[in-house]
Write a structure and sequence with these properties.
By secondary structure, this protein is an all-alpha fold. It has two domains: 51 residues, Orthogonal Bundle (Arc Repressor Mutant, subunit A); 120 residues, no CATH class. 75% of the residues lie in helices and 0% in strands. It is built from nine helices and no strands. Helix 7 crosses helix 8.
């Protein structure tokens, strides 16, 4: 990797970290590109070379985390619910500042929408209403129930500063998913 690529990556990381820190301190609407620039210790021109505006920056940041979780799910597709959820809860723990900020900020509903879309993709193909305990139930209602429960649990865990380790969360959520899917 060339030094230019490393500098670009380092700048992008600093910009992302700066916007997350600022979001933890103030409303997104009140954050200026100059504040992001100052916090990241880069020029505004550097920010604009990576992002159109602060909305594009937050979109890309959310998209990056959703894509990481999507890759985790793809790599864990052969695992049971508990094993797969350990990896997801570890990821959330490792990126606590991002998740806690997204959940607590005014951008929470926007992030939640993206998180719901991701969960819809993940759970949609798992639900079976033709056999087993969900036979005859409405697939849409089951999907909404599972997604709302999952998001609610993650939000609770993050807002309460992760009172249980990821493996406990994964075990509990995994058992509940097995019971309901």
């Amino acid at each position: 990797m060339s030094s230019i690529d490393r500098r670009r990556l380092k700048s992008q990381d600093a910009i992302k970290h700066a916007v997350i820190e600022l979001l933890s301190e103030k409303n997104f609407d009140d954050i200026t590109m100059q504040e992001i620039s100052d916090r990241a210790n880069v020029s505004r021109g550097t920010i604009y070379s990576h992002y159109v505006d602060k909305f594009n920056l937050i979109d890309k940041l959310i998209e990056e985390h959703i894509n990481e979780m999507r890759e985790i799910c793809e790599s864990a597709s052969e695992m049971d619910y508990i094993e797969a959820n350990v990896i997801l809860f570890e990821y959330i723990k490792d990126h606590y500042l991002f998740f806690s900020t997204m959940i607590a900020s005014k951008g929470g509903p926007y992030f939640r929408t993206h998180f719901l879309e991701f969960l819809t993709e993940e759970f949609n193909n798992i639900i079976n209403v033709n056999t087993g305990r969900n036979r005859g139930l409405n697939e849409e209602i089951i999907l909404q129930f599972i997604m709302s429960s999952y998001i609610g649990t993650v939000v609770w865990w993050v807002k309460n500063e992760m009172p249980y380790p990821p493996y406990v969360m994964a075990e509990q959520v995994g058992i509940l998913l097995e019971r309901n899917l």
